[in-house]
Specification:
With 196 residues, the chain is mainly alpha-helical. The protein has helices at 2-30, 37-43, 48-54, 58-62, 64-78, 86-98, 107-118, 120-144, 151-172, 179-191.
């Protein structure tokens, strides 16, 4: 039973990734407004109903990689040592996540980031995702240590602003450098005024 459940979950994840990849590819090729849920389903070789089992709308399908990234980043913060400072934990979590994503060869991530900034509906969804990520990261910092007033919210706001600048730079540079390298540079710059 456990083996069957594992296989079923892997197949579901493969389908989810296939639908997401088709959504990103079609949106990049045809433009967001021209792509329908039906076209995404057809390109992923699934039915419209199957699409709906995985995603509620095409924005969600296009930005699925962003959702996976958000979960990974939050989990990476939770996995950091409890005695580590909040800012250090956030930076280390980003470093770990970006070691897997945001490479010059990550064309899907680059295309997704570029699309999200180009289309208002995707940008609105991305901003909502980032608000959710901020809440999740604040909660993760709170679970690691007792929150100190507004400190977690301020740290997360600065941290996410740095990640947005990093992603924008990576997108504008057409993924010529690793996103991790850019993020380290931006986070160092943000930290500089506060270190002697």
């Amino acid at each position: 039973m456990d083996r069957a459940g594992g296989l079923r979950e892997r197949k579901k994840e493969e389908t989810r990734r296939a639908v997401h990849a088709a959504a990103v590819r079609l949106t990049a090729e045809l433009g967001y407004e021209q792509v329908t849920v039906e076209a995404i389903a057809e390109a992923a070789n699934v039915s419209r109903r199957t699409f709906s089992n995985y995603f509620s709308c095409k924005e969600e399908a296009v930005l699925h990689g962003e959702h996976v990234y958000m979960r990974s980043l939050t989990q990476a913060v939770l996995d950091r040592p409890e005695d580590e400072g909040a800012w250090t934990a956030l930076r280390a979590a980003a470093r770990g996540v970006y070691a897997r994503w945001g490479r010059p060869t990550d064309r899907e991530g680059w295309a997704r980031a570029k699309l999200a900034r180009k289309h208002p509906a995707l940008l609105a969804r991305l901003l909502a995702n980032h608000a959710e990520l901020a809440r999740d990261l604040e909660r993760a910092l709170g679970e690691r240590r007792r929150p100190e007033g507004v400190r977690p919210a301020v740290l997360v706001a600065v941290f996410l602003a740095c990640l947005r600048v990093s992603l924008q730079t990576w997108t504008e540079e057409e993924a010529a450098r690793d996103l991790a390298e850019i993020a380290e540079e931006v986070l160092d710059e943000a930290e500089a005024p506060f270190t002697p």
